[in-house]
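User: C-alpha coordinates for Large ribosomal subunit protein eL21, please.
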Amino acid sequence: MTHSYGYRRQTRKKFAKAYKTKGHVRISRYLTTYKVGEYVDIMVDGSQHKGMPYKLYHGRTGKVFNVNPRSIGVIVHRIVNGRYIEKRLHVKIEHVRPSNVKTALSKRYQANDQAKAEGNKAGKRVSTKRNPGQPLEAVQVQGAVNFQHPKVFREIF
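Assistant: Done. Predicted C-alpha coordinates:
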Protein backbone atom coordinates (compact mmCIF):
# COMPACT_ATOMS: atom_id res chain seq x y z
CA MET A 1 0.00 0.00 0.00
CA THR A 2 1.42 3.40 -0.97
CA HIS A 3 1.83 6.15 1.55
CA SER A 4 -0.49 9.13 1.59
CA TYR A 5 0.36 12.66 0.57
CA GLY A 6 -1.89 14.32 3.14
CA TYR A 7 -1.61 17.79 4.61
CA ARG A 8 -0.15 16.53 7.91
CA ARG A 9 2.06 13.77 6.50
CA GLN A 10 5.27 12.90 8.36
CA THR A 11 4.40 15.05 11.38
CA ARG A 12 4.12 12.30 13.98
CA LYS A 13 7.13 13.54 15.95
CA LYS A 14 7.09 17.16 14.82
CA PHE A 15 3.61 17.91 16.17
CA ALA A 16 3.86 15.58 19.20
CA LYS A 17 3.64 17.26 22.58
CA ALA A 18 6.31 16.73 25.22
CA TYR A 19 5.91 14.44 28.20
CA LYS A 20 3.42 15.75 30.81
CA THR A 21 2.30 18.63 28.56
CA LYS A 22 -0.62 16.89 26.90
CA GLY A 23 -4.16 18.16 27.26
CA HIS A 24 -5.70 21.60 27.12
CA VAL A 25 -3.81 24.77 26.30
CA ARG A 26 -2.89 26.96 29.27
CA ILE A 27 -4.91 30.13 29.70
CA SER A 28 -1.76 32.29 29.54
CA ARG A 29 -1.43 31.36 25.87
CA TYR A 30 -4.75 33.10 25.17
CA LEU A 31 -4.08 36.10 27.43
CA THR A 32 -0.80 37.06 25.74
CA THR A 33 -1.14 40.30 23.78
CA TYR A 34 0.45 40.63 20.36
CA LYS A 35 0.99 43.91 18.52
CA VAL A 36 1.68 44.63 14.88
CA GLY A 37 5.43 44.59 14.20
CA GLU A 38 6.37 42.16 16.98
CA TYR A 39 8.32 38.99 16.24
CA VAL A 40 6.66 35.65 17.03
CA ASP A 41 7.67 32.00 16.77
CA ILE A 42 5.27 29.62 15.06
CA MET A 43 5.16 26.46 17.18
CA VAL A 44 2.37 24.11 16.14
CA ASP A 45 0.29 22.65 18.97
CA GLY A 46 -0.76 19.20 17.80
CA SER A 47 -3.75 19.05 20.15
CA GLN A 48 -5.40 22.08 18.52
CA HIS A 49 -6.47 21.31 14.97
CA LYS A 50 -8.08 24.60 13.98
CA GLY A 51 -5.91 27.35 12.55
CA MET A 52 -2.92 25.04 12.26
CA PRO A 53 -0.22 26.19 9.80
CA TYR A 54 1.52 23.88 7.36
CA LYS A 55 4.35 21.77 8.77
CA LEU A 56 7.04 23.77 6.95
CA TYR A 57 6.33 26.83 9.11
CA HIS A 58 6.77 24.96 12.42
CA GLY A 59 9.63 26.63 14.32
CA ARG A 60 9.84 29.64 11.98
CA THR A 61 10.06 33.21 13.23
CA GLY A 62 7.87 35.85 11.63
CA LYS A 63 6.56 39.38 12.05
CA VAL A 64 2.97 40.18 13.04
CA PHE A 65 1.10 42.16 10.37
CA ASN A 66 -2.50 41.64 11.51
CA VAL A 67 -4.21 40.94 14.83
CA ASN A 68 -7.69 39.42 14.96
CA PRO A 69 -9.72 38.30 17.99
CA ARG A 70 -8.67 34.63 17.65
CA SER A 71 -5.84 34.62 15.13
CA ILE A 72 -2.73 36.50 14.16
CA GLY A 73 -1.39 37.35 10.72
CA VAL A 74 2.32 36.52 10.45
CA ILE A 75 4.80 37.33 7.67
CA VAL A 76 7.30 34.50 7.13
CA HIS A 77 10.02 34.36 4.48
CA ARG A 78 10.19 31.12 2.51
CA ILE A 79 12.64 29.96 -0.17
CA VAL A 80 10.90 29.16 -3.46
CA ASN A 81 12.98 28.43 -6.58
CA GLY A 82 16.12 29.96 -5.08
CA ARG A 83 14.59 33.25 -3.90
CA TYR A 84 12.90 34.42 -0.72
CA ILE A 85 9.17 34.99 -0.92
CA GLU A 86 7.15 36.77 1.74
CA LYS A 87 4.34 34.47 2.85
CA ARG A 88 1.42 35.87 4.84
CA LEU A 89 -0.17 33.33 7.18
CA HIS A 90 -3.13 33.59 9.51
CA VAL A 91 -2.45 31.36 12.50
CA LYS A 92 -4.55 30.80 15.61
CA ILE A 93 -3.09 32.00 18.89
CA GLU A 94 -2.53 28.45 20.16
CA HIS A 95 0.20 27.94 17.56
CA VAL A 96 2.12 31.18 18.26
CA ARG A 97 4.40 32.39 21.06
CA PRO A 98 6.46 35.57 21.54
CA SER A 99 9.98 35.39 20.12
CA ASN A 100 13.23 36.18 21.92
CA VAL A 101 14.83 37.61 18.78
CA LYS A 102 14.52 41.25 19.85
CA THR A 103 15.77 40.65 23.40
CA ALA A 104 18.89 38.83 22.20
CA LEU A 105 19.52 41.53 19.61
CA SER A 106 19.14 44.36 22.13
CA LYS A 107 21.52 42.60 24.56
CA ARG A 108 24.11 42.34 21.80
CA TYR A 109 23.68 46.02 20.92
CA GLN A 110 24.16 47.02 24.56
CA ALA A 111 27.29 44.88 24.89
CA ASN A 112 28.69 46.37 21.67
CA ASP A 113 28.01 49.94 22.83
CA GLN A 114 29.67 49.25 26.16
CA ALA A 115 32.74 47.70 24.47
CA LYS A 116 33.01 50.70 22.11
CA ALA A 117 32.80 53.15 25.02
CA GLU A 118 35.56 51.30 26.91
CA GLY A 119 37.66 51.21 23.74
CA ASN A 120 37.26 54.96 23.23
CA LYS A 121 38.41 55.61 26.80
CA ALA A 122 41.49 53.43 26.29
CA GLY A 123 42.11 54.87 22.82
CA LYS A 124 41.81 51.51 21.07
CA ARG A 125 39.57 50.36 18.27
CA VAL A 126 37.23 47.53 19.25
CA SER A 127 35.82 45.06 16.74
CA THR A 128 32.15 44.22 17.36
CA LYS A 129 31.95 41.50 14.74
CA ARG A 130 30.83 38.06 15.80
CA ASN A 131 33.69 35.66 15.11
CA PRO A 132 33.38 31.90 14.95
CA GLY A 133 35.01 29.89 17.72
CA GLN A 134 38.75 29.70 17.21
CA PRO A 135 40.65 26.40 17.38
CA LEU A 136 42.20 25.51 20.72
CA GLU A 137 45.84 26.31 21.35
CA ALA A 138 48.42 23.53 21.31
CA VAL A 139 48.94 21.74 24.61
CA GLN A 140 51.66 19.22 25.46
CA VAL A 141 50.14 16.08 26.90
CA GLN A 142 51.97 14.41 29.77
CA GLY A 143 51.33 10.96 31.09
CA ALA A 144 50.20 10.30 34.64
CA VAL A 145 53.33 8.23 35.39
CA ASN A 146 56.79 9.44 34.41
CA PHE A 147 58.41 6.83 32.19
CA GLN A 148 62.00 5.90 33.08
CA HIS A 149 64.28 4.38 30.51
CA PRO A 150 66.14 1.22 31.56
CA LYS A 151 69.62 2.00 32.83
CA VAL A 152 71.40 -1.30 32.06
CA PHE A 153 71.19 -3.11 28.77
CA ARG A 154 72.23 -6.71 28.25
CA GLU A 155 72.05 -8.94 25.25
CA ILE A 156 69.23 -11.41 24.98
CA PHE A 157 70.12 -14.72 23.27
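User: Anything notable?

Assistant: The two ends are 75 Å apart (CA to CA).
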